[in-house]
């Protein structure tokens, strides 16, 4: 795990409130709509990659999902989420890991990622991410990442931008695209970030 990157994110989550970071969403509406579109059983295994202190887990628990994993490189982010959830946090699996070094013990029905993939900027990082997703997903994958009209950096770090076509090109070997959309995310400080969201189904071997 890149210690400097981990330290960066721990510092961000330790020193800033949700209103002071650009990715905060009160309701992760698009993520929820994609997950709902998969018509899952409540026992479906869902992993939120780079979930941090996102409220997606709150909504999934409230809807009755019982097998949720949240992964983030920052222990500070996950601690914030646990504190917010209180006793409900015991119903979630929490994993501190760089996604490129993540070795899941089992398979997931849904791999959800909003705003992690675009931080992977080298071919090696991207390959590692896709290889892990391919090996561990037996159902669906949904990714929200900065579009080609999005910002060039986030939290002071360089990112890689995607169009629907380039995102599909990275994943099409192992996943079939279901649908894509673009949307503007309005940050807590009223700036606009354009995202492309796509859902995919794992290609059966």
Describe the model.
- The protein has 205 residues and is of the alpha/beta class.
- It has one domain: 3-Layer(aba) Sandwich (Rossmann fold).
- It contains 6 helices and 9 strands; from the N terminus they run ααβαβαββαβββαββ.
- The strands form 2 sheets. Strands 3-2-1-4-5-9-8 form a 7-stranded mixed beta sheet, sandwiched between helices. A two-stranded antiparallel sheet has the order 6-7.
Specify Rg, calculated over alpha carbons.
Answer: 16 Å
What percentage of the residues does DSSP assign to strands (E)? 25-35%
Please identify, by name, the CATH architecture. Answer: 3-Layer(aba) Sandwich
Q: Spell out the CATH superfamily.
A: Vaccinia Virus protein VP39
CATH topology-level fold name: Rossmann fold
CATH class reads Alpha Beta
Helix content: 25-40%
- For the biggest β-sheet, the strand order reads 3-2-1-4-5-9-8
Task: Kindly name the structural category.
Answer: alpha/beta
Please count the beta strands (DSSP E, at least 2 residues each).
9
The major pleated sheet works out as:
7 strands, mixed
Mean pLDDT: 88
Would you identify the regions where 5 or more consecutive residues have pLDDT less than 50? Answer: none
Order of helices and strands: HHEHEHEEHEEEHEE
What is the domain total for the residues?
A: 1
Taken from the alpha-carbon principal axes, the silhouette is globular
């Amino acid at each position: 795990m890149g210690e400097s990157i981990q330290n960066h994110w721990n510092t961000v989550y330790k020193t800033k409130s949700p209103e002071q970071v650009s990715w905060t969403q009160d309701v992760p509406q698009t993520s929820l709509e994609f997950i709902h579109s998969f018509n899952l059983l409540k026992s479906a295994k869902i992993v939120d990659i780079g979930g941090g202190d996102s409220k997606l887990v709150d909504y999934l628990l409230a809807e009755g999902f019982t097998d949720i994993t949240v992964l983030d490189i920052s222990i500070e982010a996950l601690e914030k989420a646990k504190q917010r959830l209180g006793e409900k946090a015991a119903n979630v699996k929490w994993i501190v890991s760089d996604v490129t070094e993540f070795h899941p013990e089992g398979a997931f029905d849904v791999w959800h990622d909003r705003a992690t993939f675009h931080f992977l900027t080298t071919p090696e990082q991207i390959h590692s991410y896709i290889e892990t997703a391919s090996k561990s997903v037996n159902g669906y994958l949904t990714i929200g990442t900065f579009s080609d009209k999005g910002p060039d950096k986030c939290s002071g770090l360089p990112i890689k931008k995607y169009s629907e076509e380039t995102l599909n090109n990275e994943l099409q070997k192992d996943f079939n695209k279901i649908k894509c959309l673009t949307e503007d995310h309005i940050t807590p400080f009223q700036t606009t970030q354009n995202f492309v969201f796509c859902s995919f189904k794992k290609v059966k071997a």
